[in-house]
Amino acid sequence: MPNIVVIGAGVSGLTSALLLSKDPQNKVAIIAKHHLGDYSIEYASPWAGANFTPMSSRETSRWERRTWPYLKKLASEVPEAGIHFQKNRIYRRRKDLSRLQDGSASMLNNVFAADPHYKDFVEDFRALQDDELPEGIASGSEFSSVCINTMLYLPWLVGQCRRNGVSLHRGTIAHAGDVRIFPGTRTKVDVVINTTGLGAMKLGGVTDQTMFPIRGQTVVVGNVAPFMQCHSGTDDGDEEACYMMTRASGGGTILGGTTQVGNWESQPDPNIANRIMKWAVEMMPELTAGKGVEGLDIIRHGVGLRPGREGGVRLEKEKIDGTLVVHNYGHSGWGYQGSYGCAEEVVALVSSIAPRAKL
Ligand SMILES: Cc1cc2nc3c(=O)[nH]c(=O)nc-3n(C[C@H](O)[C@H](O)[C@H](O)COP(=O)(O)OP(=O)(O)OC[C@H]3O[C@@H](n4cnc5c(N)ncnc54)[C@H](O)[C@@H]3O)c2cc1C
């Protein structure tokens, strides 16, 4: 029976643990510095929107493509997971067309492709008619998507893990090679799963210096958006975007936001918050029934750091000081929408290296 320790309790760690624990031969424990309820700048997952807006290129789309059927099933059949369906509208601003064409529109470039590859795996994809486009928008599309209430979904994942016998522990690991004994036992650990997100920069044995933060500032409001929206840009700079999504079951509406590369600032910037709210009511006046920013019912301001990585996600195995480690970190802005695809790969990598009981 392989003894597996997952470092990290974000969406990557919890989903990896969940899929690993479906095999009764695996014994799985999670050790993490931050767990649910910790709203820390070192813990990206609670701050996410989160919705399904494919960001990958066709070549790297496997993780998101594989995840969509899981999220769709949860939204259809598992209300306690806190995921619901919402239409997702993508708007390409006339002002952004040239930088969208030359590929310089940041991590969201693939989202706004004129003929996006993801139309092959999302559902109900259609181009918007001219009379559906707000002023200044050159073209747009709509498809069926989901919005995840992370405050309900992450606890649901923890519950599913516990039901499958996964144990959770608080701890900060200094070096990946230090995890040798399975928590609460004297038995040896066979495989360590590294899902530390931005923590991979500091984790001994890994210290991945290609990681960088992509700062996401948001405002959560009580107003309801009838559908999700994502705009290709704003007039306030390349690192500011306009998007909104209403979370399931009273989770409020997330108004975004920023994509500030290399920015570690943990505190909300009031000027950015004002701009986020201004864009939101301009782009979707029905949010406040035409009352403008004054009509927004502000619940809280938030900042999370997306775990960016040069070259994209790291999903591979490695031996560190004699310990077998499977890496699953660096998901940037798509950690939820790629979570099951990546966790499936973790399971495949573990199966290729872990000792199995003889049947
Ligand atoms: C504003 C915002 C909006 C977003 N919207 C979306 C969206 O709509 N859709 C989407 O799919 N994604 C979205 N994301 C991205 C998503 O949140 C991330 O990709 C995802 O949360 C990364 O999860 P993770 O588990 O890899 O890392 P994290 O959630 O950061 O978890 C890392 C874990 O590792 C632990 N850890 C780190 N180092 C150590 C150590 N040395 N020892 C022990 N534990 C350690 C931490 O304590 C934590 O438990 C958004 C992010 C932000 C900030």
TrEMBL record:
- The keyword Transferase appears for this protein: no
Say if the entry is tagged with keyword Flavoprotein: yes
Q: Entry's InterPro entries?
A: D-amino_acid_oxidase_CS, DAO, FAD-dep_OxRdtase
Required cofactors, per record?
Answer: FAD
Q: Which domain of life is it from?
A: Eukaryota
Gene Ontology molecular function terms on file? D-amino-acid oxidase activity; FAD binding
Q: Which residues bind D-dopa?
A: H231, Y243, R306, G333
FAD dependent oxidoreductase domain location is 4-348
> Which keywords annotate this record?
FAD, Flavoprotein, Oxidoreductase
Instruction: Provide one Gene Ontology biological process annotation.
Output: D-amino acid catabolic process
A single GO CC term for this protein reads: cytoplasm
Q: Which SUPFAM superfamilies match?
A: FAD-linked reductases, C-terminal domain (SSF54373), Nucleotide-binding domain (SSF51971)
Q: Where does FAD bind?
A: T196
Protein family membership: Belongs to the DAMOX/DASOX family.
Please report the name of this protein according to its UniProt entry: D-amino-acid oxidase
- Which species? Cyphellophora attinorum
